[in-house]
Design brief:
By secondary structure, the chain is of the alpha/beta class. It contains 26 helices and 28 strands. Among the domains are: 190 residues, Dimethylsulfoxide Reductase, domain 2 (3-Layer(aba) Sandwich); 133 residues, Barwin-like endoglucanases (Beta Barrel). The structure holds iron/sulfur cluster. Iron/sulfur cluster binds next to loops.
């Protein structure tokens, strides 16, 4: 393979007073290249960032950047960022402490709970930022292993778990098709708003630019969403849909293809198993049958199916809205059923598979087959919710803490997570955390969750860390590789993040506070280098590297492109490994070596889809006649970035979007406070009247609600907003994945008195 890279010899260029560094933005999944200008501080104590802008020479982002990328400076300089460990004192308050004092408190806290209740009484929660962080990607697993508990939770079960499961069952491993936006003729997006999110589970900088170029070359974009999002505004066609009915729409489209003889498996025909089972399972879910629940008329559904089949190349892509709903796994599965039966799977311009330089199970082992995915190997203690990928659904976390009995959680470890803000029934979880015997958090803020911690262990800022997108490049729209060195040095005494996690693992295991994090580093490296040839190990050892750099180096050297970390260090703007190429059958990791089009756990849930058509209420009742959905803004990133003034200033964004007809009926006008209530809670939020939302549907963005006592986020507190997860209900979930329903929550809306 021909590799292209820039010729800049190092990651920094010097000038008399300033220097320029390059790194990948770690804030979202777009992986934009940043050009960072630094100068010496006037007090002579190190350097400061002067400016951050898009790196024009970055091989993937070509200079694109969103408003968040330039705020790494503000995040680094934020006076509210935790820079020293915090330990709760006898007065009940968090106080700065030395690292030795903090580690001693962690050991006391964890040991106390384990001795009294066993390891099953300790839980861990992993937040979304960990997926953007090489230290966490490599060293969180040892923490979980050392804790030795089944109580593992993460943000994945309020996010993409249905897609991980549907693709794991169909293709094996983490083998997720992505839309080949750069070459497609027809793009069908469901529950996705890349103009705000910059893409998700489909890594690429400048999604909007890529779509605009597709439209310019005559392509078609159809957006299915209950809201006329910014992406829908740019689309060739916006199809407003009732929340939670994407699976119904996709099933009806598949039926049209079956009925009208439009099924064409294309190049994967010999690999597909289960086509007849799919046809049988979906029979009856016709456009006419689903039109009343979806809100999309049958003629439109039939036309959409025919257009999809007729396009020279096409890709169906579903994201957060299709995952965070009651039929999350079925909808995610049907996305790829449609990609397959229209002959667009593994085809340029269709839905393709990335070939990452490191870290992919589908570039290791025997090409074309593997262990597949087994789910529901165990269930949660209180409600029996299903395990998947070694985790339990986070919807079960609060009840596992507040329900007495054998296995009740008494201690919690959070890694870069804010579940009080991010997960269902926040009020219950908030109360449960306050009742724990011990809690330790690795985090950079005292936020809605970490305010309950007994110890907070700070991580360095993003500018102080190495970076490689181990997770995100598994689902990239183009094969690239790039390594970022730290731009600024660690603060005095601040361990690197991987060292914090390694030490935490050692203490959790009982090795004591004096144990050396290098032990864990050697174990992680040893496991990944186990099958590396001797000369590769020798070459890596000769570099003298430690931590993530050593591990990524050996992964690169044993990966599919024969790269080294030095190659990446010599290419500060990244290395372009080329457009996606067909990867089947080699990328399959199913036991049969087939594309399992009809996985049994998913087909078992299809009768519920039929039943929901017959029922037709979508969960609405006379008491709660509206369905609540979320939304995202370009200047927001879950709950992480509301303490950055430049991102939150201006018109308040935490509003209740309401259709004009509904507003008139309820006597609500723009800006009026409205009370929104679900089964589990209520919030009061200002109204935003817009015809860009389906009547009977209302929307509040997630990640807000920063006014709880003890939250030390001064800017965010001034723009507090409300926490929409006070309304989300832990009893509403996708039964296959346990993923929470965050879109389609039945609520009432009334004027606040
Ligand atoms: S889109 Fe924005 S936040 Fe995301 S990686 Fe690019 S600059 Fe960073």
């Amino acid at each position: 393979m021909t590799l292209t890279s820039t010729t800049t010899p190092a990651s920094t260029t010097e000038s008399t007073a300033t220097r320029t560094a390059f790194r990948t933005c770690p804030l979202c999944e777009a992986t934009c290249g940043l050009e960072i200008t630094l100068r010496p501080k006037t007090d002579g104590r190190g350097e400061e960032v002067v400016r951050i802008r898009g790196d024009q020479a970055d091989v993937f982002s070509l200079g694109f950047i969103c408003p968040k990328g330039s705020t790494l400076k503000q995040l680094h300089d934020d006076p509210d960022r935790v820079r020293r460990p915090l330990v709760r004192g006898a007065d009940g308050q968090l106080h700065e402490a030395t690292w030795d004092e903090a580690w001693a408190a962690v050991e006391r806290g964890l040991t106390g709970v384990v001795d009294a209740h066993g390891r099953g009484a300790v839980a861990a929660y992993l937040g979304n930022p960990g997926a953007h962080n090489i230290g966490s990607m490599l060293f969180a697993r040892p923490v979980l292993k050392a804790l030795g508990t089944h109580h593992v939770y993460s943000a994945s079960t309020v996010d993409q778990r249905p897609k991980e499961i549907s693709t794991g069952l169909m293709f094996g491993g983490f083998t997720v098709p992505v839309p080949d936006v750069d070459r497609t003729d027809f793009l069908l997006l469901l529950g996705a708003n890349p103009w705000a999110s910059n893409g998700s589970l489909a890594t690429a900088p400048d999604w909007p630019g890529r779509i605009e170029r597709m439209l310019e070359r005559g392509g078609t974009l159809v957006v299915v969403d209950p809201r006329r999002s910014r992406t829908a505004e740019a689309a060739s066609q916006w199809l407003p849909i009732n929340p939670g009915t994407d699976a119904h729409l996709l099933a009806a489209m598949a039926n049209v293809l079956f009925e009208e003889g439009l099924v064409d498996l294309g190049s994967v025909a010999d690999l597909v198993a289960g086509l007849d089972e799919v046809r049988a399972a979906l029979a009856g879910l016709t456009p006419e049958a689903v039109a009343p629940v979806t809100g999309i008329d049958a003629v439109t559904i039939r036309c959409l199916a025919r257009e999809l089949a007729a396009a020279p190349t096409a890709a169906v892509y579903g994201r957060i809205g299709t995952c965070t709903q009651s039929f999350g796994t079925v909808a995610s599965w049907l996305v790829d059923v449609l990609n397959t039966v229209t002959g667009n799977l593994d085809k340029p311009g269709g839905a393709m598979f990335a070939k990452p330089a490191v870290g992919s199970a589908n570039t290791r082992g025997t090409p074309g087959s593997g262990r597949g995915l087994v789910i529901n190997r165990r269930q949660s203690r209180v409600r029996g919710l299903p395990e998947s990928l070694g985790e339990l659904p986070v919807s079960a976390l609060a009840e596992e803490i507040d329900t007495p009995g054998e296995g009740q959680i008494r201690a919690l470890v959070t890694l870069a997570g804010n579940p009080v803000s991010s997960t269902p029934n926040s009020a219950r979880l908030d109360a449960a955390l306050a009742d724990l015997d011990f809690m330790v958090s690795v985090d950079i803020y005292v936020n809605e969750t970490t305010r309950h911690a007994d110890v907070i262990l700070p991580a360095p800022s993003a500018l102080q860390k190495q970076h490689y997108d181990l997770a995100l490049l598994q689902v990239a729209l183009r094969n690239v590789a790039n390594w970022s060195e730290p731009v600024l040095p660690l603060d005095p005494d601040q361990p690197d993040e991987w060292e914090v996690l390694a030490k935490l693992a050692l203490i959790a295991q009982g090795a004591g506070t004096d144990a050396d994090p290098a032990i864990v580093d050697d174990l992680v490296y040893g496991a990944l280098a186990e099958h590396a040839p001797d000369d590769v190990r020798a070459a890596v050892d000769a570099t003298g590297r430690r931590g993530p750099a050593r591990i990524v180096d050996v992964m690169l050297r044993t990966g599919p492109y024969d790269l080294t970390l030095d190659d990446l260090l010599d290419a500060p703007h990244g290395i372009d490994l080329g457009a996606l190429e067909p990867r089947l059958p080699d990328a399959l990791r199913t036991p049969t070596g087939k594309i399992e089009l009809a996985p049994e756990p998913i087909l078992a849930d299809v009768p519920r889809l039929h039943e929901s058509v017959r029922d037709g209420t979508l969960g609405r009742t006379d008491e709660r006649p509206f369905l609540l959905v979320g939304r995202r803004h370009l200047r927001s990133n879950n709950s992480w970035m509301h303490n950055v003034e430049v991102l939150v200033k201006g018109k308040p964004r935490c509003t209740l979007q309401l259709h004009p007809d509904d507003a008139a009926r309820l006597g609500l006008a723009e800006g009026d406070p409205a009370v929104v209530a679900s089964r589990v809670g209520s919030v009061t939020v200002p109204v935003e009247v817009t015809d860009g939302i389906v009547p009977g549907v209302v929307s509040i963005p997630h990640g807000w609600g920063h006014d709880a006592p003890g939250v030390e986020l001064r800017v965010a507190r001034e723009h507090a907003g409300v926490n929409t997860n006070i309304l989300s209900d832990e009893e509403l979930f996708d039964p296959i994945s346990g993923n929470a329903v965050l879109n389609g929550i039945p609520v009432s809306v009334a004027a606040a008195s």
